[in-house]
Write a structure and sequence with these properties.
Layout: E1 3-6, E2 20-23, E3 27-34, H1 49-66, E4 74-82, H2 89-103, E5 111-116, E6 126-134
Parallel strand pairs: 4-5
Antiparallel strand pairs: 1-2, 3-6, 4-6
Helix pairs in contact: 1-2
């Protein structure tokens, strides 16, 4: 495996992600920001943040699988949420949990969550991008 995830002493342990990833592979994989589209470009879960988070993670999983990677190879995630407030965290975590169950993985690489004013279209509430390292 090309990625080792750790929580260094002196930094808080966060359930949703690890603080540091160490990459030892030879190829970088950059997955474009994924929104809650199905394969036909139809928005999934309009108005439902948890459903859209789940779909974004599943879409990243699909992109990774195409190049022989999985969430085990992800070194960094960036999640952008429209009109972010901390009150939305339970919905975000619900979406991640549902996606993890379907993916058979626990996606916990270092992550950044950014609040944004808007995304590409008004129906999209979240976008997820990933950087992975593979051998």
């Amino acid at each position: 495996m090309a990625i080792t995830l750790i929580n260094p002493g002196g930094l808080p342990e966060i359930d949703a992600y690890r603080q540091v990833s160490i990459a030892t592979g030879s190829k970088l994989v950059f997955v474009a920001g994924q929104v809650a589209w199905d394969a036909d470009g139809v928005t999934v879960g309009e108005g439902d943040l948890a459903a859209q988070v789940e779909r974004c993670y599943l879409n990243v999983g699909t992109a990774l699988a195409e190049v022989g990677a999985s969430f085990d190879d992800v070194a960094k995630l960036t999640l952008c949420v429209v009109d972010w407030t901390p009150a939305k965290m339970p919905q975000v975590m619900e979406g991640i949990t549902r996606a993890a169950a379907k993916l058979g993985a626990t996606p916990v690489p270092p992550a950044s969550l950014l609040g944004v004013a808007a995304l590409d279209v008004p129906e999209h509430l979240v976008e997820l991008e990933a950087t992975a390292v593979i051998d």
